[in-house]
Amino acid sequence: MKTNTEVVTAAVVGLSGWDALVERYSRLVWSVPRSFRLSHTDAADVYQCTWLSLAEHLHRLRDPEALAAWLVRTATRQSINVLRLRGREVPPDRWEPESTLPTPEDVAIGSDRARRLWAALTTLNERCQRLLRIAAHSPELSYAQVADALGMKVGSVGSTRSRCLAALRVKLEASR
């Protein structure tokens, strides 16, 4: 088996030495970005950048026997750069298209709806107001929890809620 010095010298001179370098250290270079838990695509980018960097600096390599450490150090720096850049990026699924931003008309209509809703809610009896407020602000509560909070029977929560919503609908229709 050839030494690193022989393989590096062959790589500087021609392609066959380069192939031997890639074959010898490919798994090592791949292991670095994967140890940073980069995605396959990002790991492939780090892998390619590491080999490109070696190709650019191969003729200046001082100690060919330390090539493994040089490759690990270079791949580590590339991996850290990828992580740093990914931390600054906003994933596309978090982008808000401009069309979802409310227009002044949307704000005005929403404010009017909210005002009418709260005005209609205050005309309901106290029991309905409390029940609908709990339903709106704490939808994760079970009927048992709502019944306990309002001093009601568990079996009456659903039907009372339905009656209160129907009464609220009537009052909202009348306020149009």
TrEMBL record:
Q: Tell me where in this chain the RNA polymerase sigma-70 region domain is found.
A: 21-88
- Which GO terms fall under biological process for this protein? DNA-templated transcription initiation
Q: Which InterPro entries match?
A: RNA_pol_sigma-70-like, RNA_pol_sigma-70_dom, RNA_pol_sigma70_r2, RNA_pol_sigma_r2, RNA_pol_sigma_r3/r4-like, WH-like_DNA-bd_sf
GO MF annotations for this entry? DNA binding; sigma factor activity
- In this record, what's one Pfam family? Sigma70_r2
Q: Which UniProt keywords apply?
A: DNA-binding, Sigma factor, Transcription, Transcription regulation
Q: Which family does it belong to?
A: Belongs to the sigma-70 factor family. ECF subfamily.
Q: Which PANTHER family match?
A: RNA POLYMERASE ECF-TYPE SIGMA FACTO (PTHR43133), RNA POLYMERASE SIGMA FACTOR HI_1459-RELATED (PTHR43133:SF8)
**What is the protein's name according to its record?**
RNA polymerase sigma-70 region 2 domain-containing protein
Source organism of this protein record: Lentzea guizhouensis
Organism lineage: Bacteria, Bacillati, Actinomycetota, Actinomycetes, Pseudonocardiales
